[in-house]
């Protein structure tokens, strides 16, 4: 539940610290005193959008802090843990600062937060019923949302939305492929042709460079053979050859090294040189003998190089990039031939997805129908208590099998009402009387609130348009709601305020330069005076005080 709120420089509130208690709390005061400002502040801390009137005139910023006891709210504790915003104890502190320029910052338990996070957490803590709730109930979406909230359909809505998203994705894919089928086939044919000619070329990664080397060798084969043969002869085969000349010099030095050891070093070098000359001559001989002068091979290499360069020019890439292009074409062909492009397979999957969605929507529709009967009966009974004897409320849930698939199901949901006995049921939007509409809306909110599991409920002047004994009934029902949760109620009716467990009075404090709002926690004696004021206006008599005492008793 909400335990404390600190407000600074908000609207006409300069500074306010307010302790909030369990049970039902009434907020009363003169018209224009700012009774709804407190609720507006709570709404802002819970993620509502701020407007230009948020910051008090002359102030730099609005600072709002709300403390909440989440001991009995496991869903809020779990949410805080997933966000890494848990607190040591079971108190959650939400803070929001709004500058005069409209910039906003927020924190949850000291960690920076955005408005989405404030709203997500707030939805698990507080349920707010505004004084203009009956206006939103005129909208079909609001009626559906209220029914789903009463039924607790969150899980069913999630699974229905998931089934719808699966169907929608497939439907869009099938529609796109159907319109692009001709272009798709033309693309496949082109890629197959390109793959076939590149596969026929069968080019290896390093082949262009290897072919260039072989062409150069074959084109100069005769000159290469003559040069290597001549080299072999000069090094080894002729007489005298370099090899034999080195041999004689080595022999002479071997004789002289005995005389002077300093000749040992050049002798070693010449011996090594003779060995290298012999190895080089052998390699030149072998090269000359194996060198093939093959005009046919030369012609084949020239043709092969021409084919490779021709395809490279066609694809406007370098010859060595052709193998990579083939892999790319093969990958695209595999993709275009996969299930994502198989129209027949996709249409079958679409039918299966449509069946799964209809089944899910049907399950949701049954849950709504069951909840609609309960809510209809409860609201009908509440209407009798609110002075609409013989009135009837019925929620129509109609699933149209031919309706377009939607994320929220296929149901047409409409709130219908008969305000008087014998009158036919009509859509709520066509109820003519504003007073009747207000009471019907209040009956719906009272019954729907009984199913809400949130720890705090806020009612902002929802009792507008009623009075007398009916107002007393409303007060008793709000008090009953406050027996197992926290209820904050802004009201102008003494019959409602007298039922509260706690009573706060909102006053407007007028100074010479500015006006501010104050909130006082009333003592039992002060409460009698406030209830008497609400009964009798500005002139309070002993009779009105006695009546106020009786109402509080």
Please tell me about this protein's structure:
The protein is of the alpha/beta class and 553 residues long. Among the domains are: 1-125 and 454-522, Rossmann fold, CATH 3.40.50; 186-336, no CATH class; 523-553, no CATH class. It has helices at residues 37-45, 74-83, 115-122, 133-136, 140-151, 154-179, 181-201, 207-219, 221-237, 242-256, 264-290, 295-315, 322-336, 343-385, 434-451, 468-481, 494-497, 524-536, 542-552, and strands spanning 2-10, 13-19, 24-29, 61-69, 91-99, 104-108, 111-113, 126-129, 392-399, 411-418, 426-427, 456-460, 486-490, 502-510, 515-521. The strands form three sheets. A six-stranded antiparallel sheet has the order 2-1-4-5-6-7. A hairpin with a 2-residue loop joins strand 6 (104-108) and strand 7 (111-113). The longest helix has 43 residues, at 343-385. 31% of the residues are buried.
Brief descriptors of the model:
single chain; 553 residues; alpha/beta; Rossmann fold; 6-stranded antiparallel beta sheet; 6-stranded mixed beta sheet; 17% strand
């Amino acid at each position: 539940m909400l335990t404390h709120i600190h407000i600074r420089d908000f609207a006409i509130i300069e500074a306010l610290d307010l302790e909030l208690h369990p049970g039902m709390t009434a907020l009363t005061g003169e018209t224009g005193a700012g009774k709804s400002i407190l609720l507006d502040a709570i709404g802002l801390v819970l993620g509502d959008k701020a407007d230009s009137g948020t910051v008090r005139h002359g102030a730099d910023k609005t600072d709002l802090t709300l403390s909440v006891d989440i001991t009995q709210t496991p869903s809020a504790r779990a949410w805080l843990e997933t966000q890494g915003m848990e607190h040591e104890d079971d108190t959650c502190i939400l803070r929001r600062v709004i500058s005069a320029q409209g910039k906003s910052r927020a924190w949850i338990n000291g960690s920076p937060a955005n408005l989405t996070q404030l709203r997500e957490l707030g939805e698990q803590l507080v349920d707010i019923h505004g004084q203009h709730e009956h206006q939103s109930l005129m909208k079909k979406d609001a009626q559906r949302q209220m029914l789903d909230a009463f039924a607790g359909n969150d899980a069913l809505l999630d699974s229905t939305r998931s089934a719808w998203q699966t169907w929608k994705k497939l439907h869009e894919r099938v529609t796109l492929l159907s319109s692009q089928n001709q272009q798709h086939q033309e693309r496949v044919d082109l890629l197959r042709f390109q793959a076939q000619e590149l596969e026929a070329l069968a080019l290896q990664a390093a082949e262009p460079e290897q072919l260039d080397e072989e062409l150069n060798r074959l084109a100069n084969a005769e000159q290469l053979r003559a040069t290597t043969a001549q080299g072999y002869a000069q090094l080894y085969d002729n007489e005298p050859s370099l090899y034999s000349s080195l041999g004689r010099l080595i022999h002479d030095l071997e004789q002289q090294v005995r005389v002077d050891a300093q000749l040992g070093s050049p002798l070693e070098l010449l011996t090594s040189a003779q060995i290298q000359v012999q190895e080089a001559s052998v390699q030149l001989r072998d090269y000359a003998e194996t060198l093939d002068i093959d005009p046919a091979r030369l012609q084949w290499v020239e043709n092969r190089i021409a084919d490779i360069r021709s395809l490279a020019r066609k694809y406007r890439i370098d010859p060595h990039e052709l193998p990579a292009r083939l892999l790319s074409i093969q990958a695209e062909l595999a993709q275009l031939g996969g299930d994502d492009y198989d129209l027949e397979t996709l249409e079958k999957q679409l039918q299966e997805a449509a069946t799964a969605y209809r089944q899910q929507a049907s399950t949701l529709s049954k849950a709504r129908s069951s909840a609609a009967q309960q809510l209809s009966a409860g609201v009908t009974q509440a209407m009798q208590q609110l002075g609409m004897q013989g009135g009837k409320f019925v929620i129509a849930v109609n699933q149209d099998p031919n309706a377009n698939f939607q994320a929220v199901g296929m149901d047409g949901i409409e709130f219908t009402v008969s305000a008087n006995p014998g009158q036919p049921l009509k859509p709520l939007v066509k109820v003519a009387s504003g007073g009747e509409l207000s009471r019907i809306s209040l009956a719906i909110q009272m019954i729907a609130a009984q199913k809400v599991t949130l720890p705090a409920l806020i009612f902002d002047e929802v009792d507008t348009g009623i009075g007398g004994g009916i107002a007393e009934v409303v007060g008793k029902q709000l008090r009953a709601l406050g027996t197992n949760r926290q209820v904050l109620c802004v009201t102008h009716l003494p019959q409602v305020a007298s039922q509260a467990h706690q009573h706060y009075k909102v006053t407007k404090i007028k100074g010479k330069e500015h006006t501010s709002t104050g909130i006082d926690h009333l003592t039992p004696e002060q409460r009698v005076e406030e209830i008497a004021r609400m009964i009798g206006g500005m002139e309070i008599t002993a009779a009105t005080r006695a009546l106020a005492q009786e109402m509080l008793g």
